[in-house]
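R.M. (postdoc): so does anyone remember the format we settled on? I'll just put the structure tokens first.
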């Protein structure tokens, strides 16, 4: 296959079971990483923690793929991975961790839940983009309402002054993540999407470690102060949040629509709430159940209205190129 074929040209060739498994991984695994991150940053600075997580995970995946005979990426592929890695992991993931030291978690969750809206609008605004259907906006609006109900006014920080710097950083994070996601669908990438994942994690991790320097995270920091619980949480984040979850997300960006893929932003908080109830004994109220139902309805509507066929040019490319190697 031509290594510079547009990645979304391969959408219809992915086995349905593999797409469903990838969605399940992004929904469930990333929903569980809320706990892992909270534990890891107790004794690890956020950007250092994220940098270690992605550099090790990306390095392991890169070496494994090379051992399996996957060719070295071209220079143009490294350029794409650098841009996406900085947008998704550096400015996206890293900024969320930073902003949550300034704004309530509930407000952060609501702003993260706006990612589907940004992704749909950016996919529409790009040259040759597809105009979203009205049902997509209905589903997005329902998802945002559901998240607001789920976290509640107190968690949104509406009962106290907002930290506008933190809000601005969260806005940067959601826009950067959305832009990186859209760019990755149309950038030149290697034949093997997992190689792209490894490259993005490596470069994004290096960028995160660099961000920690001007933020003063290296000052007075020692690995001796890191607790066993934080190390175990970091291990979980590397194995499941990065190697499994991020790989599934990058794969879905190549084989599905932005609106469908971005529904993880609605589902993850629901999974986190359910895990809190099951593992930590946290209470689930009738309002929680109502919010979860509204979120699920929003996801269902987005999925329903995203059954439109691929553009003819992409469809013809797909029939000629065959199934992607994953």
């Amino acid at each position: 296959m031509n290594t510079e074929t547009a990645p979304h040209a391969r959408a219809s060739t992915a086995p349905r079971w593999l797409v469903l498994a990838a969605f399940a991984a992004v929904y469930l695994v990333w929903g569980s990483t809320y706990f892992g991150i909270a534990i890891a940053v107790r004794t690890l600075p956020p950007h250092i923690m994220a940098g270690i997580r992605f550099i090790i995970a990306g390095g392991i995946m890169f070496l494994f793929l090379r051992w399996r005979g996957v060719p070295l990426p071209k220079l143009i592929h490294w350029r794409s991975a650098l841009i996406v890695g900085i947008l998704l992991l550096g400015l996206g993931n890293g900024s969320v961790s930073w902003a949550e030291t300034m704004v309530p978690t509930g407000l952060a969750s609501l702003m993260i839940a706006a990612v589907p809206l940004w992704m749909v609008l950016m996919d529409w605004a790009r040259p040759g983009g597809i105009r979203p259907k009205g049902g997509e906006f209905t589903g997005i609006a329902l998802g945002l309402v559901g998240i607001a109900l789920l976290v509640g006014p107190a968690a949104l920080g509406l009962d106290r002054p907002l930290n506008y710097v933190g809000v601005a950083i969260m806005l940067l994070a959601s826009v950067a993540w959305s832009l990186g996601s859209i760019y990755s669908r149309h950038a030149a990438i290697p034949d093997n999407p997992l190689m792209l994942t490894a490259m993005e994690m490596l470069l994004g991790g290096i960028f995160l470690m660099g961000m920690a320097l001007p933020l003063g995270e290296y000052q007075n920091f020692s690995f001796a102060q890191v607790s066993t619980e934080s190390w175990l949480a970091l291990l979980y984040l590397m194995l499941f949040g990065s190697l499994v979850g991020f790989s599934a997300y990058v794969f879905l960006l190549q084989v599905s629509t932005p609106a469908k893929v971005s529904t993880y932003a609605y589902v993850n908080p629901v999974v986190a709430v359910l895990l809190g109830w099951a593992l930590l004994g946290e209470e689930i109220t009738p309002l929680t159940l109502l919010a979860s139902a509204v979120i699920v309805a929003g996801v269902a509507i987005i999925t329903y209205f995203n059954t439109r066929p691929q553009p003819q040019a992409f469809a013809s490319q797909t029939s000629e190129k065959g199934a992607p190697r994953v």
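R.M.: ...and that's the designed sequence above, right after the tokens. Also worth knowing: The chain has one domain: 12-308. Confidence is low (pLDDT under 50) at residues 1-12, 308-326.
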